[in-house]
Each structure stands twice: as C-alpha cells, then as structure tokens.
Amino acid sequence: MQKSVKGTALHAALLSAVLSAALLGAATPAGARVITAAVPTGFSTLDSWDAIDNLSRTVARSMYEGLYVFDKDLKPTPQLAESYEVSKDGLVYTFKLRRGVKFHDGTEFTAEAVKMNFDRGMNPDSKLSRRNFFNFVKTVEVVDPYTVRFTLKTPTAGFIQRLSNGTAAMICPSLLKRATTKQVTAFEACGTGPYVLKRFSPAEELYAERFQDYRVKGLPKFDAIRWVPVTENQTRAMMLQTGEAQFISPVPNEQFRQLERNQNLTLIKAPSVVTRYLSMNETKKPFNDVRVREAINYAINRQALVKVAYNGFAVPSTGYLPPQIEGAVDFGVHPYDPKKARELLKEAGYPNGFKTSILSAYNDGKTLKTLQFLQQQLAQVGIKAETRALEAGQRTLIYGAKTSADSKHALYLIGWTNSAAEPDWGLRPLLASYNAPPVLNNESYYKNPKVDALFDEAIKETDPEKRVALYAELQKTVNADLPWAPLVFEMTTAGRAKALKNFEPLPDGSFSFYEAEWTE
Questions:
Q1: CA-CA distance, 47 to 60, in Å (whole number)?
Q2: In the beta sheet, which residues pair with residue 383?
C-alpha cells in the first residue's frame, strides 16, 4: 500500500516534533501561522464539479466558495449570495449576490461568473462527474451584474441544500477559459476562498496561502493551510500528539480514548450523515438473484462489525438514509442469521457457496478491518471472497465502466455522504437506474421502474408530507429488492490541538475551518 507521506521525511518530522513537544510542553503551528490538517486519503481533484469524493470537495473549499454553504447543523447559509426569492410555482429562483468580492486573480465576482460556472458544470460535454447534480436546472440568466436567475425544469425542494454542499464552487472565469481539459481545473485553482493555492500533489499535500483580498475582513487568521493525506492511523494520531498536525480527521477509533486523556488536545465525536454499505452488482451472477443478496444480508453481524472495525464509533444501519435526514425509514437492523443465509444460498442453487471478490473504495485502517470482517463473515456461509482496497486514483475500475457489461466488480464496499442533507440526494445517485457508472454511483446497477417513477414524482412534490410518503414508499420498494447490504451509520470524529478553535467536523463529513484561529 502506498504511503501518503514519505517515510524518511515523515519520521524526521515526527522526531523533531516529539522533541519540540517534550521541550515546549505543547506543539504549536509554525509561528502559530500555518495550520496542518491530516486526513485519511489522497485527493482526486481540486475541481468540486468533478470530485466524486467528499474529502476532495472539502479541501477545495480552502480556495473556493459557492452561493450558499452549510452551517454546523447542515442549515443552508448565504455565502457569495446575499439572499434569494422563489416564484410561487417553485420554478424560478432569483439570487442577489454580494458586491465587492474578488477572485484570486483580482477580477470581480459577478452574475456572469455564476452563469459561466453553471453552464460549464451542467454541460454533458464537460464529462464532469457532478454534472447531473443540478440536472433539474433549465437555464441560468444574468439579470444584472449582481443578480442571477435560475429557472428549473420542475420544482425541486432540495435546490438550496444542493447549492450548499460545495459542488457548485465558483471558479475564476480566467481559469475556466483556459480549462480545455479537466486536468487544468484538477490541478489548478482560482476562486474567492480564503486561501490561494501554492502547491498540490494529490497523494502528498495541498498547500494554500492566505488570500490578502478575502471578502471577510480579518479572515483567514492563518498565513497558510496545509492538508496532508495520511492513510496510516497510527501515523495520523502521532502527528496530532506531537504537533506535526493541529487537526486530524477521522481519529483512529482504537486510539480515541487514549488521545482524549491528553490535556493538550480536544477530541470530537458526533453523529454523521455518512452511511457505509456493501453494493452487489446485479449484472453479475449470482448477485442477480435476490435470494443471494438476501443471504449476504443475513450473513453479516452488524453489531459485531461496529465493535470490531469501528470500536463503537458507528451504529448499525437501520435503512438507506441516516435517521437525521427527512423521510428516513427505519427498517430496524437486519437480523444476523447465518443458518438462514445458508438456506437461501441452497435454495438459489449454491449449497456449497461460491467464490467472489470485494473491492473497497477506501484503504484506511477501519476499512481494511471491515474488509477482513466481511471476508470472515461470508466465509462462514460458504462465500469465499478475495478482497482489495483501492487507492483514490484506482476507483476508475468502478466508475470508468461505460456500460454494465464493462463493469468488473462483484461486491463493492463503499460509503455515501448525504452532502445535500435531503432524501433525494441520499437515494437517487445510488439507486436510480440511469445513475449507474459512469453517470453517478449506482454501483449495483439496480434497476426498478417503480423506483425510477417514484424518484420523479417525489422531487416534484411541493407538499412536505406527500413528499415524505413518496420517499418512504421508494425505500420500502428498494428494501424488498436488497441491492445492498446496508452496514453502518458512522460517527464523525476529529482531534485538534486545544489552542485551535473554530476548526470543526460537520455531520456531512466535511469541515468548517474558515474562522479557525490559534488562541495561545
């Protein structure tokens, strides 16, 4: 497995930090002006419109902003917009923009920049992975330099939430004009955010310096922010203890209690909207048989998984949406019954089980433990599974498939962050038949016309109670088909130096860091 921080340099840095911590009692960022955050995986791109992973969109917020942003409770809050009005039929949204906002290249942020970003982001020819996130938008029009009008194809209750999750980053028009390929915006950045990109290596480091003309006076309070991918749990925890990093997320579950006893650190644990599940590719035998999919669900002891892989920092899944999302249906934890699993496999024609493989979208410590756990659980009912954890750049094995016939995976261990904090985005990208790779994240290639129809009906429904009822019917239909084995709802964890304030993990798995400051 590739290390995200090179061994020799890291060991030297850690030794230096240990000595400093021993001498000073508490490590501080260099001159209390550079903040280092250690995260578990590398970054796929700097372009939020093309980032399939939440972490890449999160770190891109160092340089980028959108019209709206989520607060700590996932409530949409104006960012580059000041306000909006919506027509009675729910089809037209008119936004007033902040004046005097500068891009990193010195040009002014205007309605024309908003239109340019959305026209490019939604264009099918762009091949951007998030181009369908706003596929309900019909047109974007400039009313005047500080007013922009969105006309929707259908009423969409979650529009403002989708504007808030970081996808619709406002990229400098000057950079967009040069972006003849996705590689340009993948490795370069120019926005209105608090920091300006200085260097970027996806598996090694993102380093950005303070934007002197940032729109909020007095912010940011650090000269630079440094994001470092560190896959090894022990190394990430050590970096926090020694001051090599002032913030880490997630905290290795097995070390949370130990770190919590350190008086120089603050440890954070809270419910999240992150769900982990095992997707079953229904185009590959034997997973085209619902009895096999049901057997796999019975074969997994989710309570034991929480203890073994998550050290208690998760709860067993009770359905397809985390409970804090409006409209989530609680099906209860799927029973653990290996005897029933073996009976179903025999009924499906596999009395001796079968061989298969499990790929994983992640390669961090808890995921490796989860892979091992699932391998052992399936083996107990006769399913012999080889496992492989993918690096961020290797996910093209899954999402690069042009058709279901091109797909190579059987079982896929993956997570989904409901980054829009509403039911449609928690379900549609994963379960609508038209969202199979390479469009979005229906890795099971699940297809049910009733479910597709319910998606279309629910998103147009303006009555909240009727909309919730439609999503409930949809989830019940999916639960009868079992394209996944839902596993756990994660808790979000983070650790930071006690002197670091206003650097917080959010329930969607992202971080709030714009107002971060060092208080010593």
A1: 7
A2: 354
